[in-house]
Amino acid sequence: MLMIIPYQVDVPSNRRPYVNYAIxxxxxxxxxxxxxxxxxxxxxxxxxxxxxxxxxHMWLQGGAVSFWDTVYFIGNLLFLWVFGNAVCVKVGHxxxxxxxxxxxxxxxxxxxLCGGExxxxxxxxxxxxxxxxxxxxxxxxxxxxxxIIVIIRTLSIDSYGLILAWLVFDIxxxxxxxxNVIYYAHLxxxxxxxxxxxxxLKTGLIRMEETExxxxxxxxxxxxxxxxxxxxxxxxxxxxxxxxxxAGADAEIEQRESPTATPIQSKPVETPLEVPNSxxxxxxxVQTRSEKADEELIRFKCDCGKTIKAPRKYAGKSGxxxxxxxxVRIPEE
Length: 333
Prior knowledge:
single chain, alpha+beta, 2 domains, two-stranded antiparallel ribbon, 7 strands, 48% helix
């Protein structure tokens, strides 16, 4: 038996994803209440086009009584914790809850259109969040625990490898496996989440940091960096240009008014050496965006063994290790 359990993503954040915490807490509480109520939760089942079922199903888990139902329930919440925290921080608290509910509703519609049986579960909404994460952080590392029979080890893999493997499993399950897992909702939620992630990047509503690589950057599509420089950047550049202009004007006035000033001699223009057409030209290597992003990162290890990536502009400053929370100092070079 092979089991891979993700528990952490390498996505630095400067705030807590409280809305995602709340969604996880509400799901746990609602599921426990559902176990007590029994048949009273039937109106919340995803069964046809009932509005209560289209929205209410994602706050409950079907079963959570048998061993595998419990594993499925815990696995769903674990994936929501790993990917949802990063997405929540990126979109903000106000936008995250409507996005989560919207993706779950779209997944429910896909499930009904595909003739799915009555079901409960947040799998569609969680897959939508995973789709957004894949678009924004395809090469960020995911720390996992893998279990092979009685052997337990840890590993770190790129997020696209884990998420795409999960997607392939859902596709296989939708066409081969007969179970109560709502695979069509999973696929519909994933597609909706990935599409929404792309739209938010292309419209500039979400902007990636200079050291982050979104899925769009691999295809060099415009918009993967947002709308360009912010108003603060433009204002800073304008102030710097104005300062240089005033500094040059002051120097010129001082030069004219000084009686002992030495005239400024213009530097002679050097004529470039003409090269015969037959001489071979050596082209300069073109640096890709990914290579530039890699050069802007400093990689070092914490005492706990975690490999940390930090922007070069933070060299010499201190921070916290995302694994052990120990205070670390970013090396100069």
